[in-house]
């Protein structure tokens, strides 16, 4: 089960963090992986490491917030890989500031990156998947879309909208052979959360709040993603799976 040989996976935001762990996991199951990020040097380094593990990798630098550039890059790589079977729409950004002083331009930037561009790139890829009658789309949501938290108003709004989009796309894409699901990570140790895991007070709070009493690591998400990306999970669609050490199901 869960053999991905012969399949092609595009993972946005995969030069590090959750996306990199996902590329390793999908590649480890036999998929050809197309990795992405904005920094070509970091992406080349990640590609070298993955190739060292025997994974077939294409490095595709683009900024997901520049939709024209991103679509062009995706169409270009399609000439080489043929089609995309698995799309992990993972890249995301954060801006932390309290609501009453949160700048509108930051709200718009985060919403555009974390929602609008996910919609536009996902739809572009879904059009190709629909023409082949098969596809697996997985979005990266967040527990902050399930539980409110101070200081992340734009991020939470975008991720909650993504959760809604998962259900709506499941309704619309099922007849095309495409499943649409999301993982909702809890607190995972990556560059995105570095200011939090550098903060001993926050970590103490987290260890008290999470039943498993620890930070997550990117590899914690890999098995959930492989499951959602696999042919065998074909009857699972429109679902959001929290991978959070129990945080969102307990008080
Ligand atoms: N870490 C957590 O606790 C947590 C919790 C819930 C949800 N998430 C979500 O998980 C996803 C991955 O987060 P992470 O923690 O792994 O973050 P990360 O360690 O900061 O990695 C982000 C990745 O995305 C790339 N990226 C950032 N902006 C991009 C853009 N505009 N276009 C293309 N690539 C871009 C980065 O490379 P470049 O900088 O080179 O572009 C990097 O490869 C995000 O959607 C995040 O919201 C994370």
TrEMBL record:
Gene3D superfamilies: NAD(P)-binding Rossmann-like Domain
Recorded superkingdom: Bacteria
UniProt domain Ketoreductase: residue ranges: 7-186
Signal peptide region: none
Keywords: Oxidoreductase
Entry's Gene Ontology molecular function annotations: oxidoreductase activity
Keyword field contains Oxidoreductase: yes
InterPro entries: KR_dom, NAD(P)-bd_dom_sf, Sc_DH/Rdtase_CS, SDR_fam
PANTHER family: 5-KETO-D-GLUCONATE 5-REDUCTASE (PTHR43669), ALCOHOL DEHYDROGENASE, PUTATIVE (AFU_ORTHOLOGUE AFUA_3G03445)-RELATED (PTHR43669:SF3)
Family to which the UniProt record says this protein belongs: Belongs to the short-chain dehydrogenases/reductases (SDR) family.
Protein name: Gluconate 5-dehydrogenase
Naturally occurring in which organism (per UniProt): Paralcaligenes ureilyticus
